[in-house]
Amino acid sequence: MPIKILDKEVVARIAAGEVVERPASVVKELVENSLDAGSSHISIEVRGGGVSLIRVTDNGAGIAPGEAELAFGRYATSKVQNLEDLESISSLGFRGEALPSIAAVAQVDMVTCATGEKAGTYLGLRDGAIAGQRSQGRPQGTTISVNNLFRKIPARLKFLKSVTTENSHIANVVSQYALAFPEVRFSLFLDGRVTLRTSGSGQLIDSIIEVYGVEVAGNMIEIKDEATVPSPRVTGMIGSPKVSRSGRSYLSFFVNRRWVNSRLLARAVEEAYHGLLMVGKHPIAVINIWLPAQEVDVNIHPTKSQVKFSNERAVFSTVHRVVRQALVEQMPVPEVKAAAAKTLFPSAVREATSPPYAGASPGPAPSAPTPAMSLPVLRVLGQLNNSYIIAEGPDGLYLIDQHAAHERVLFERIEQQRSQKEIEVQGLLEPMTLEVSPQQEAVLRSRHEDLAEFGFSIEPFGDRTFLVRALPALLHDKDWAGMLRELLDSFPQGDSGDWAKGIAQSMACHSAVRAGQTLSDAEMRELVRQLEQSTTPHTCPHGRPTMIHLSSGQLKKEFGRT
Ligand code: ADP
Ligand code: MG
User: Fold this and answer.
1) What is the pLDDT of residues 320-339, one digit of tens each?
2) pTM for this predicted structure
3) Which of 228, 245, 483, 523 could form a disulfide with 510 if both were Cys (CB 3.0 to 4.6 A apart)?
4) 79 CB within 6 A, ligand 1
5) 191, 47 contact by CB (below 8 A)
């Protein structure tokens, strides 16, 4: 093909692709515009995962009648004028790309009325071109409706995930801005249901209650920057180590109120929690970083979600110091014992070991046992570190991780009971309530039937609250609420994964004996006996080893005998 310049429509669509990746990107751009317009109320209505409809209504400054059409022109913005402005951006938008990009991939209708105007303006766009314009009354503010997103781009539609997943991304975007702007009243409606509503009180804790629930909010610690150096300044709230989560999605960073992704900042916070959380756990934090606009470059990526600090080191160390200080003040006695016990096993022994089942992890499917995988009869000798069972077999020594081994045993039992529809259920005398985040709610609503198969009886009970009437008997006296939240959190990424298997794994993990728990001889023998009978004894359901085997030959070699 000869080289030629692409025509306008192709260019518009390519550019749109950079800004509008999925429905949640549209929500983000429209909400940012509403915030830039100084709105105190922002309402977001979504249907069909955002593909059918996204409508954002605000009470901000509005657009003057003469400028409505211009707002949809490429690189048309009221927020920067020249190169100097670009050096110190104080608004969320500045590229003038969002509205034209959205109009290139959807039908857009806007009704807006600017401060001081008597009549408002309606503007309709089809295929990126103006299809209708007239005056239309409305109170001050702007409503933008986006219909049939990506309808003309089947390739993009195909890459979208389920409605549940897209809803959960949207709920996340709105939740983040609700955390960043506690003085703004947000309402989010997903398919007609209120999913999030904040009061606009101006208090961060009120937004945290709405987004994460009262339980998390009750365990948040305010962070205060007491240093005398003015920049950067760090404010916000962090979770006490008691309310950690299994993913990083509960870390929110706002730089001059812009929601950003930053590995640097995540590391600064996580390092501040060092030694305070169990392995694999992550903190909850809402961190605001304030610094002069010239000290941060936001013009790095079309989605504006990444920033570059001119002094990265200062930002890192301030965030780290402020978070650590707040933690140390609140938590004089860190609970690190359990975490330490899990990793105490000396690596030298691991290296010296080459088990006969090397390469067996993550293990074949439980239904396909092979002779090499089975476990000989073992004699229990004792417990090491309250975490490992020491046992003797026909060929040498076995060190068994009690938690991982019990997880394996329970996992197989749960899978078997479920396939025979025989899960043991424990009814609750008084139903208990379970509060979840907007994202978790979306998942729970679509999945509570799968959970029912495992013995959970859960029904909706008002705003992001569910009533739990029965539980799998295994979890009765365990942290089942924590388990459910963790499970719901791990779902959006594992969309297509095996949800049922995930439930079984999670139930097994939460009901198994812990590291650090003393076991009687009888209990150890029983656990080992059950492990001997399981189909895949050498790995836990996540694929990690349950044991280390030192054969008699290896022992001899270790001690220098031949
Ligand atoms: P940017 O936000 O980068 O300026 P956009 O394409 O998102 O670019 O918006 C273009 C312009 O339209 C904005 O600069 C602003 O003047 C106007 N605008 C968009 N949305 C709103 C709104 N909700 N309220 C008031 N003005 C708006
Ligand atoms: Mg914008």
Assistant:
1) 999 988 988 775 433 333 33
2) 0.66
3) 483
4) yes
5) yes
